[in-house]
Amino acid sequence: MTKETEQLIEIVKESNNIVFFGGAGVSTESGIPDFRSENGLYTTGQGKKYSPEQLLSHSFFMRHTHDFFAYYKSHMIYKEAKPNPAHLALAKLEELGKLSAVITQNIDSLHQVAGSQTVYELHGSSNRNYCMKCRKSFSLDQIMKMDTVPICTNCGGVVKPDVVLYEEELKQATIQKAIDAILKADTMIVGGTSLVVWPAASLIEYFQGKNLVLINKSETTYDTMASLVIHDSIGEVLDSVIRTL
Q1: I need a surface site. Which of 89, 96, 103, 185 has the fewest CB within 10 A?
Q2: Does 152 count as an annotated binding residue?
Q3: What is the largest CA-CA distance in the chain?
Q4: Which residues act catalytically here (predicted)?
Q5: Residue 35 is labelled as binding a ligand
Q6: What is the CATH number of the domain that holds 206?
């Protein structure tokens, strides 16, 4: 066990209101790749090449709905993914009364599968889908069984995943709940994110507590602000914490 992990264990022991803020690096350890790390571009059925950021934008969804879903279903959905030690450790910290909320940029809902109760999904969830016309809800299983573009069985409208696309605003209610949790926290653990995606990354600036802990394999622009920085696997670090509590 590293000296940094031992420091984190002591911080967790002394804390009573921890908030965790996580990014794609939390889910990569469950086999879900960070699409921003992809090399090359995606070729659509029209023979044109687009970046993932273009494919996952609101304007692309509206103009090229078939190509959007071809990419979304093949590159963004990992139904076989299971919670990893990071997800399980955070659920355990909540069960122990140490952690009050998980704030995530991920859309896979693995935190809930692991057992976390209070989860604020900044970018929505692929498990929720709704008709753009009549608002009827559909599960992920339902839309995956449909043709490339899922169509509402009630009114024939296009079914859109309840995820925040590029060019769309985050849901203000979710943002406010996340901010409220951060303002009350005595410790904030940030893991698996390089803190470059705004406005989500700006949430760290609301923290007024004692311990800001950053756990990420690479450096972030906030490293100099942190009480503790750990450049290691988020799953291994948090698992070590749980095993010693």
Answers
A1: 96
A2: yes
A3: 59
A4: 123 (proton acceptor)
A5: yes
A6: 3.40.50.1220
